[in-house]
């Protein structure tokens, strides 16, 4: 019966050595994953930062004037130029009238 116990003891010791070897292999294989976890955390932080920056840029671009807005402004400026030309022509007429009135008054109403 002692031989049976010694055999069982040897089997347990071989099994314990196998578990230890497996644990050693598993820890050796997973040692890189800890370093990778740190790298992944850094990359996730950078990703979140870039997402925030892109969101800020998207909201800034949304508030920028479009091609149609510029076209409307251009058309309004063109319309204003036309109106200013009309007013300028009318002011020239008013200036001529004012000059004639000034000449008339300087000549004391045509009486010398």
Tell me the number of structural domains: 2
Spatial extent as radius of gyration: 47 Å
List the secondary-structure elements in sequence, H or E: HH
Largest sheet: none
| Distance between the first and last residues' Cα | 159 Å
Structural class of the helices, strands and pairings? Answer: mainly alpha
Helix content: over 70%
In round numbers, the mean pLDDT is 88
Shape: rod-shaped
**Low-pLDDT runs:** none
Oligomeric state of shown chains: single chain
Number of strands: 0
- What is the count of DSSP helices, taking H or I runs of 4+ residues? 2
How large is the share of residues in beta strands? under 5%
Give structural notes.
With 112 residues, the protein is mainly alpha-helical. The chain has two domains: 1-64; 66-112. The protein has helices at 2-62, 67-106. The longest helix has 61 residues, at 2-62. The mean pLDDT is 88.
Highlighted features:
2 helices, mainly alpha, 112 residues, rod-shaped
In short:
By secondary structure, the protein is mainly α. It has two domains: 1-64; 66-112.
Outline the fold blueprint.
Blueprint (H helix, E strand, L loop, with lengths): L1 H61 L4 H40 L6
